[in-house]
Design goal:
Layout (H helix, E strand, L loop, with lengths): L13 E2 L30 E4 L4 E4 L5 E2 H15 L18 H22 L3 H30 L1 E7 L2 E7 L6 H21 L11 H11 L4 H23 L23 H16 L6 H8 L3 H14 L8 H28 L5
Antiparallel strand pairs: 1-4, 2-3, 5-6
Helix pairs in contact: 2-5, 2-10, 3-4, 5-8, 6-7, 6-10, 7-8, 7-9, 8-9
Protein name: Cyclin-domain-containing protein
GO molecular function: cyclin-dependent protein serine/threonine kinase regulator activity; protein kinase binding
GO cellular component, one term: cyclin-dependent protein kinase holoenzyme complex
């Protein structure tokens, strides 16, 4: 079951809750009254059930995020059987300081791009090579298809009224597998084009923490918008893995094929961040800004940001909805990462000898 996502920063944000456990008594109708029963003031609106011919009372309560978090903590406490040492700490998405969340997020993304810069130093060039190979493969498949159709066609010639006529019979499904593979290659080629659109020619000189702080200063957004970046980046990577698994039809495997399709590195992370915030703020927040403002804050021309916004949506397959459970899970994982980093830093500082 998918819950509605968070919106806004107040603790009064609402989630669709469960209907009341006790059934609401139907309103009594006045004698001779044939219309729908009158609704008491302050009650939730009712819906008409055509099967029973009666009105069903809707839920009169919506679960706030505070209530959701309390239930989550209670459920964890019960599952741990009173073992306080194993109690899992949850990130309070509504009340957690946004500047601290930015620090945690910047630390995580920085570690990711530093690792990817070392593991995939030539990702852009390799991706271009994969696209070129796809184009050449498409041309070869088209040529082979035409030759195969010509060889396998059965021609019959006859003369009628002095007119020579040739009829060719070609099997309808002889190239069905090739058509499917061609479609897969075309989808992958388009996806690669979406990925390459975010690659910059130079690495921006601003750190991720400073970049996120700049976004918060000039385009204030709430915690769920920043957390949605992790969800969206993960979705894009998982979708890229699907194409990665389906490219065995290219023939011989080469080292280029081993390259990942989607890699966050120093050349694209800033564009991915500002576009993720642009899309997420429009989806989650009641108040957002014009693209011109996002472009100025992100350091991009307006035309480029407009173009990249569409590319970002295509990478996500326009799937922007995030359940509160997913958002909470990513927030908890980020909090765990941050605590491990703090613990590792304390250990390093304790083990480092001080100069006297």
């Amino acid at each position: 079951m998918e819950s509605s996502s968070l919106a806004g920063k107040s603790s009064h944000q609402t989630l669709h809750g469960f209907p009341p456990e006790t059934p609401v008594k139907p309103h009594q109708q006045q004698p001779g009254h044939t219309g729908p029963p009158a609704r008491d003031p302050g009650k939730a609106p009712s819906s008409f059930d055509e099967r029973t011919g009666s009105f069903l009372a809707g839920p009169d309560h919506y679960m706030s995020y505070h209530e959701y978090l309390e239930r989550l903590n209670q459920s964890d406490a019960e599952s741990k059987d009173g073992d306080a040492s194993g109690y899992e700490e949850h990130l309070n998405i509504v009340e957690f300081p946004v500047d601290e969340l930015i620090t945690m997020l910047a630390c995580l993304l920085t570690k990711i791009i530093e690792a990817n810069d070392k593991l995939h130093p030539n990702h852009f060039d390799n991706t271009i090579a994969v696209r070129q190979k796809l184009k050449e493969h498409k041309k070869m498949k088209k040529l082979e298809k035409e030759q195969r159709s010509y060889r396998r066609s059965n021609s019959t010639s006859f003369t009628h009224g002095g007119i020579n006529t040739t009829v060719s019979h070609i099997s309808e499904d002889e190239n069905s597998d090739d058509s499917f593979n061609d479609e897969e290659d075309e989808l992958k080629n388009k996806y690669l084009a979406n990925v390459l659109a975010f690659h910059g020619t130079n690495v921006p000189g601003i750190t991720l923490h400073a970049y996120l702080t700049r976004v918060l200063k000039y385009c204030p957004v709430t915690n769920e918008v920043f957390l949605s970046l992790l969800v969206y980046f993960d979705r894009i990577a998982k979708r890229a893995n699907i194409f990665q698994d389906k490219k065995s039809n290219l023939g011989d495997e080469t080292p280029t094929d081993a390259e990942q399709i989607f890699v966050m590195d120093s050349y694209n992370i800033h564009r991915l961040i500002i576009l993720g915030i642009t899309v997420s703020s429009k989806f989650f927040s009641d108040i957002f800004y014009k693209n011109l403002r996002y472009a100025k804050v992100g350091g991009l021309p307006l035309e480029e940001l407009n173009y990249l916004e569409l590319q970002f949506l295509l990478l996500l397959d326009f799937k922007l909805m995030i359940s509160v459970e997913d958002l909470q899970n990513y927030g908890d994982l980020l909090l765990k990462f941050w605590k491990r980093e703090q613990l590792a830093g304390e250990i390093v500082n304790r083990d480092t000898p001080t100069s006297e």
